[in-house]
Amino acid sequence: MEIKILGTGCSNCKTLFTNVQQVAAELKLNANITKEEDMMKIMAYNVMQLPALVIDEKVVAKGKISVDEVKKLLQNHSL
Questions:
Q1: What is the pLDDT of residue 52?
Q2: pLDDT (tens digit, 9 = 90+) per residue, 62-78?
Q3: Paired strand residues for 4
Q4: What are the tens digits of pLDDT across the range 31-72?
Q5: Distance between CA 37 and CA 7 in Å, rounded?
Q6: Which residues contact 4 (CB under 8 A, 6 or more apart)?
Q7: What is the pLDDT at residue 78?
Q8: Contact by Cβ (8 Å): 5, 16
Q9: What is the pLDDT of residue 71?
């Protein structure tokens, strides 16, 4: 599973990255988690709200995302 956090390095982006790492470890997912801060690459995903969560090249959430939401998204995607 490829997971990307799209964001410019703001506190919400950093929090989302940390939360995704923790949830992926808790769920024992085999995931490659990366941050994308390059605005040109972020714009290619056509998102207007950051941070954004991308799983296997599909934008699944935008804006402030809670730990519970992250958990649900990762669980649903790993099925």
A1: 97
A2: 999 999 999 999 998 87
A3: 34, 54
A4: 999 999 999 999 999 998 999 999 999 999 999 999 999 999
A5: 5
A6: 33, 34, 35, 36, 53, 54
A7: 73
A8: yes
A9: 95
**How far is Cα 73 from Cα 59, in angstroms, rounded to an integer?**
11
Structure tokens at 30: 């085999």
The two tokens of residue 73 are 């998204």
Can you tell me the distance from the alpha carbon of 58 to that of 17, in angstroms, rounded to the nearest whole number? Answer: 17
Burial status of residue 39 (CB atoms within 10 A of its CB: 0-12, 13-18, 19 or more): exposed
**Crossing angle of helices 67-78/11-26, nearest 10°?**
50
**Tokens 């402030």 label which residue?**
64
Residue with tokens 């990307």: 4
Q: Which CA distances in Å does 16 have to 10, 34, 58, 66? A: 10, 11, 17, 8
pTM above threshold 0.90: yes
> C-alpha angle 14/70/29, rounded to 5°?
95
Q: Reduced to 3 states, what is the DSSP secondary structure of residue 19?
A: helix
